[in-house]
Amino acid sequence: MKKNFILALLVILVAVASCSFTNKSFDNDDKDKFLLELISYVLEKGHYEPKEVNDSFSSNVFDDFIDIIDPTKRYFLKSDIREFEKYRFMIDDEIRNTDIEFFNTVYERLMVRMEEAKDIYKEVLATPFDYTLDESIEIDYDEQDFAANKKELKERWRKQLKYNTLNVFDNKVDNMISDANQESGLEADMILAFNDIPNSVDKVITEEEAREVTKNTLDEFFDFVGDLERKDWFVQYLNTIVEEFDPHTFYFAPEEKEKFDIGMSGKFEGIGARLQKKPEGAKIVEIISGGPVWRDQSLEVGDQILKVGQEGEEPINIVGMRLEDAIKLIKGPEGTVVDLTVRKVDGTIETVSITRDVVELEESYAKSATIDAGDVKYGLIDLPKFYVDFEDYSERNAATDVAKELERLKEAGAEGIVLDLRDNGGGSLKTVVEMAGLFIKDGPIVQVRSSGQRKEVHEDKDERIQWDGPLVILVNELSASASEILAAAMQDYKRAVIIGSKQTFGKGTVQNVIPLDGIVRGNEHGDLGAIKLTTQKFYRINGGSTQLEGVKSDIVVPDRYSYIDLGERDQQNPLGWDKITPADYKVWDGYIDFDDAVKKSKERMAINEQIKLIEENARWLKEQQDENLISLNYNAYVNKEQEAKKRSERFKSLRDYDSKLSFGSLQYETELFTQDSVLREKRDRWHKDLARDIYVEEAVNVLKDLHQNNIKKEENKLASVKG
Predict the structure, then answer these.
(1) CB within 8 A of 494, min separation 6: which ones?
(2) Alpha carbon 582 to chain centroid distance?
(3) Which residues of 559-582 are buried (b: 16+ CB within 10 A; e: fewer)?
(4) pTM, to two decimals
(5) Which of 48, 75, 545, 682 matches a 20 to 30 Å C-alpha distance to 602?
(6) Sign of the dihedral defined by the CA atoms of residues 642, 644, 650, 651, in that order
(7) CB neighbours of 383 closer than 8 A, spacing ≥ 6?
(8) Rounded Cα gap, residues 510 and 446, in angstroms
(9) How far apart are CA 354 and CA 351, in angstroms?
């Protein structure tokens, strides 16, 4: 459906656009202006709820763009903002006239101010900080005005740098005192005033080292910023305009579109290593299990790539090159060879030839574990996203993978399933409809409405059921979009018990990715990227929207982020909540004791001391987040830190919790462990985390209450492997 919708939208857009969007749009070859006109057109014609581009819109873009590029108010002066003010109500006119004078003015001034900032931080960090002074820093930058002059700006930098360095200094002092504890006899948690720091700690040298750490961090930051080109900043400006429509509409520059596709499919073509830019080259910071580098064992973490050569060609020096450009040289089609000149960890230099291949990001995919709960075995499936290859749906996708894991867990004797959708931000609409069909006989899954259109009902028409046993779905505040569709459908059918946060994220909109090249006739501007456009809203089968309100858990279990603003309602410019008529569906009557199981769980949660501690921790984290005035006096700072440390000690038991449940891998995975020690280590770590997870423990308790023998057996067709 998604592909068909994109094609339909492209036909509509191209029908009008092909006459106007050609390579003759402008007398000069100005790609920025061309993109602005093209994106504005797509937003106007294709967005679910297009906004009027007027003075109010202009003012919002003005404020948001300044805030995005200078959020801590460390670059621009008041005089700069006054100068920019003449554009506040002109940006809408510029958009209509494909003018970018506002962007050019702000960008050019930003480049000047950033160069000045380099001089400021180096000058400030050349002088020792006095931690005995009584002064503080306000870190709620939204409430601050811009600096009136350069003297005031430098003072802001001084306080910010002192704050950053104070934390480093304190950690260094703590570590040195801890190392010297046995000799000095000091207590590990003893609070020391600045003047009482023992002589074993050279305060002058330690303070100097702390400043050097801060300087190195800023050097790396400005090195990264220095790699950004004008086009990168212009993309940010375009997205400031685009995101005024809603928080999920987004313009992808060509490189970002590629990253988005990798994120959705969980795979790419390359060598299978994650890189970090360093002055000496591109440093390997992770080797991806199963990839070419992992198989060849010719490179290791810490090696630095100096040159990149295509097979039979002269190598290109990548030292000092933008990391994105270096990665472009290293990546390439499956089966091709890349020659890497590498400085090994031991300092030797050699050339390594690697045959590129398809690299799968294992952490993107569904994984499962068996749960040994005494005399009963259950299964857990962790799904990080609803992934799909948009180019070829028959390739690996979330629905078929979950179907396989369900079948494997059935074969392993699982009598109940926990589907973990916590932190799952969504993905493909098609996969979630297919996945929901794994748990019901047939019927509607989600309703979708386009702007000004009648609703569409997406149904599972396959009468086979992959899993007809007890089902619990875990969610939290970061379960969004497709996760909410699945949780809502299972809740409306009363097919699963939903356990988790008070509500899920609240993203009830559908986006389609539109390649901009497909809208332009005779394009001579190169790759134009794509726009992720909000084109539809989805609704539960009961008619309600999940937009803003999310899915309310059947059993609410607090987590440490319960009081942190994370949801759709806390984003800028979200679309509103509404409802439509319900779909025609019949509640699943397989559970005899559904409501009783929910009631028992709530009773357990109400008296669970661990849950009470999680709730207390969540409230404390909110208090910490709201603390905006920080002392820069060492004594006051360490006292505050010590208070926080004592308070946090109370919550340490949360990390040490033991559910007494035992988790294991399925047979196919244990066979892989003989060849892949990294995968074994990842699974062992995951299983240990699951054993400490009280939410998983309660999910198992609910499965126990939804006894297998209390589930009505209908004449359903059980699928062997559906999907």
Answers:
(1) 587, 588, 589, 591, 594
(2) 33
(3) bbebbeebbbeebeebbebeeeee
(4) 0.85
(5) 545
(6) negative
(7) 366, 398, 402, 419, 420, 421, 424
(8) 12
(9) 10
